[in-house]
């Protein structure tokens, strides 16, 4: 599977075959671009490195900031002014864009620093990126968890140089630049230097080694060399007085001579940055080949946990790349928190929690449970140290919590981790913070009035109360659990009983139709509120475009009237946007898993592809790619409910290494269907589950507990081209809080 990874998928504007059938009725409100980058990364590592053009939003590529339609270009070509570190992955307007410590190999004068050169012969794989600049310099980068190793192959030149710019940060877009607050740079001789620059209130330190035989090294300021100077200190930098500054190494090169640049990073000072570099390089000089091999081995270890049989080459490429994108973020910088002094896990770049909590965190819990537990411990520690569970958390002091987007999302992952019996977390400590967090931000209004606007926060908070009640009940505090569960029933206040949809309100992206089909903790009551199964299914059918005409997608600079008309469709956004990514599985709760099968198959077939334009929208830190992984496996996690929903997979057989063994999804009657093809031979594809067994025993329900999956086992699905009675009766539906024999009610 690792050999199927293509890091260039998602780096360019969406370029997929014109959708047909159901998928042609879905409308895209968000930018049609994946916003990923092809740079070198390690699995959930602290450091990434990539070519830097200053483009939105990763620093790589050609596009400017956009919020809808086809992205506009900043540049006519793929280009770079150097190579930076710490990039976003698949986000949109996140406002803090990193791209720190720009390294530029040059054969030009220092005055030309900042000029961009076209990139040629780009190649990328997991843990490695390479390109040739117009100047003839071949540039290769690999990374470890906390280090980056650059290798530059120069042409013959009497004054080649490697320039390190510590003032660089952010993007070359309006309001995209990050201005350092303070900095210190020191040249230590013998090809070594170090520096610390405070960006967004965070001290980022770097320790540098450059293998340049007989090369000179100097500091520079405002593109002027400081001959003989060994230290620069900046106590107060402002946008008005900022001038670029950094380190320079220079000397002559023979044709094909390589120069290696090794950088260790830390958020706790240059000494720890040096220790990180020495530990990961393990004394190797040069270290490029060894670090690249170690990182490749780490990626292979992760990819060996997911194996699939069957499927087309294109589907395997998209699946492999989706798994890769799902394991880039969040960044873990163990023992590196700049905000509290003790050791332990520290996770940052949790930038789209409102997307990843549904799909990516459950994937991490299944594939890398230790890291998933570390993420929760880190979030709990953030709550303890900084006041609340973050909705987004970045490498920035006083990080923007993204409170408008959502409320109390960490509760879902904590509840699932407790139900799975994950060790290493003080659950009483976690429960205290879960309860306290429910009263913060929008939570105070919800506590007092039972409803809050934006109305989606009512759903968030009611769901978080339910998740917290599960933990409280499990640790033995039944009185608290009963109170929390009662408040969790406040989700009903978000809905209009006349329409069966959410009440009119403000919405963060999307509208009330997109959010009306979230998977709540009481879907039985939710369906009753909508008028019962048939009425609920009718609303879903309208939302997903059954019987509707194909729609036209927004183009470049779509006029306001076009966007208004698109929103008026009240239509599924086809994975171009994530608020309704779980909605296809709402049919399971109404006894129509066949509808889920049709929609998911259409999405897998028409909304994803190979090549740079292979994503339908922003990958959002791996949230979208994680959706693709789960959908391809025929499973969908219901975050916070310790539950997986079952659907027809995209592969004949799949096996995933889970914490307690191997979980196998195998099929009979499966037939591979290509991406972007409306049927192979006019014969209906076998989309529908006819019957199922779990470990050899009949499975009539359309769901599994998360424990069933995490302890390993064998799920067999018999597929066919026509819907069946599987999962249609009331007793086979996923559980809801108001079920007559709900286990939590009975205790």
UniProtKB/TrEMBL annotation:
Glycosyl hydrolase family 92 N-terminal domain segment(s): 5-266
Record Pfam families: Glyco_hydro_92, Glyco_hydro_92N
Region listing for Disordered, in residue ranges: 715-747
InterPro entries reported for this sequence: 6-hairpin_glycosidase_sf, GH-type_carb-bd, GH92_N, Glyco_hydro_92, PNGase
GO MF entry, a single one: hydrolase activity
Boundaries of every Glycosyl hydrolase family domain copy: 272-720
UniProt keyword list: Hydrolase
PANTHER family found in the cross-reference section: PEPTIDE N-GLYCANASE PNGASE -RELATED, PUTATIVE-RELATED
Name of the protein: Glycoside hydrolase family 92 protein
Species: Paractinoplanes bogorensis
């Amino acid at each position: 599977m690792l050999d199927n990874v293509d890091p260039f998928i998602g780096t360019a504007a969406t370029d997929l075959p014109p959708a047909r059938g159901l998928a042609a009725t879905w409308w895209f409100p968000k930018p049609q671009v994946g916003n990923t980058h092809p740079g070198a990364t390690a699995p959930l590592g602290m450091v990434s490195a990539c070519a830097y053009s200053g483009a939105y939003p990763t620093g790589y590529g050609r596009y400017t900031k956009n919020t809808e339609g086809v992205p506009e270009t900043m540049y006519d070509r793929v280009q770079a002014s150097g190579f930076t570190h710490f990039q976003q992955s698949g986000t949109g307007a996140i406002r803090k864009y990193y791209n720190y410590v720009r390294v530029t190999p040059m054969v030009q004068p220092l005055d030309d620093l900042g000029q961009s050169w076209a990139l040629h012969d780009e190649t990328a794989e997991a843990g490695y990126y390479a390109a040739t600049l117009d100047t003839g310099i071949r540039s290769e980068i690999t990374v470890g968890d906390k280090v980056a190793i650059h290798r530059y192959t120069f042409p013959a030149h009497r004054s080649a140089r490697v320039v390190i710019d510590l003032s660089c940060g952010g993007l070359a877009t309006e309001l995209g630049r990050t201005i350092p607050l303070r900095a210190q740079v020191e040249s230590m001789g013998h090809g070594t230097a170090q520096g610390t620059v405070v960006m967004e209130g965070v001290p980022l330190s770097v320790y540098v080694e450059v293998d340049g035989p007989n090369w000179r090294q100097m500091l520079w300021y405002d593109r002027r060399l400081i001959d003989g100077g060994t230290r620069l200190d900046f106590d107060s930098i402002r946008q008005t007085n900022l001038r670029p500054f950094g380190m320079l190494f220079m000397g002559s090169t023979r044709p094909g001579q390589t120069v290696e640049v090794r950088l260790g990073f830390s958020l706790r000072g240059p000494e720890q940055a040096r220790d990180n570099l020495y530990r990961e390089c393990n004394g190797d000089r040069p270290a490029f080949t060894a670090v690249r091999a170690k990182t490749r081995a780490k990626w292979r270890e992760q990819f060996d946990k997911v194996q699939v049989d069957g499927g087309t080459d294109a589907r395997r490429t998209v699946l492999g790349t989706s798994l890769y994108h799902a394991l880039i973020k969040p960044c873990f910088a163990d023992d590196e928190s700049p905000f509290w002094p003790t050791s332990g896990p520290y996770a940052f770049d949790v930038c789209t929690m409102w997307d990843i909590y549904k799909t990516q965190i459950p994937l991490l819990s299944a594939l890398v449970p230790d890291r998933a537990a570390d993420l929760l411990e880190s979030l709990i520690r953030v709550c303890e140290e900084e006041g609340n569970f973050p909705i987004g958390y970045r490498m920035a002091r006083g990080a923007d919590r993204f409170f408008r987007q959502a409320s109390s999302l960490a509760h879902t992952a904590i509840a699932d981790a407790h139900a799975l019996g994950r060790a290493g977390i003080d659950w009483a400590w976690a429960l205290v913070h879960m309860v306290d967090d429910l009263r913060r931000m929008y939570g105070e209004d919800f506590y007092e009035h039972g409803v809050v606007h934006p109305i989606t926060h009512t759903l968030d908070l009611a769901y978080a109360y339910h998740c917290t009640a599960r933990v409280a009940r499990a640790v033995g505090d039944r009185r608290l659990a009963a109170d929390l569960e009662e408040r969790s029933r406040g989700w009903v206040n978000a809905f209009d009983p006349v329409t069966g949809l959410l009440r009119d309100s403000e919405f963060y992206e999307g509208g009330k139709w997109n959010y009306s089909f979230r998977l709540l903790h009481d879907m039985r009551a939710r369906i009753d509120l909508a008028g019962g199964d048939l009425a609920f299914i009718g609303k879903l059918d309208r939302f997903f475009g059954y019987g509707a005409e194909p729609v036209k997608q927004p183009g470049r600079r779509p006029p306001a009237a076009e966007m208004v008309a698109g929103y008026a469709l009240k239509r599924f956004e086809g994975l171009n946007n994530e608020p309704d990514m779980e909605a296809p599985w709402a049919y399971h709760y109404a006894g129509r898993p066949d509808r889920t099968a049709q929609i998911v198959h259409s999405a897998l077939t028409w909304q994803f592809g190979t090549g740079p334009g292979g994503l339908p929208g922003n990958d959002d830190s791996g949230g979208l790619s994680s959706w693709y992984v789960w959908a391809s496996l025929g499973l969908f996690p219901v975050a916070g409910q310790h539950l997986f929903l079952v659907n027809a997979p995209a592969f004949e057989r799949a096996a995933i290494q889970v914490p307690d063994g191997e979980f196998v999804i195998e099929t009979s009657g499966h037939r591979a269907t290509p991406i972007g093809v409306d049927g192979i031979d006019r014969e209906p594809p076998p989309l529908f589950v006819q019957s199922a067994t779990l470990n050899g025993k009949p499975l009539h329900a359309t769901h599994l507990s998360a424990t069933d999956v995490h302890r390993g086992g064998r799920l067999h699905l018999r597929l066919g081209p026509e819907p069946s009675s599987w999962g249609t009766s009331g007793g086979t539906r996923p559980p809801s809080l108001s079920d007559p024999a709900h286990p939590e009610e009975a205790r």
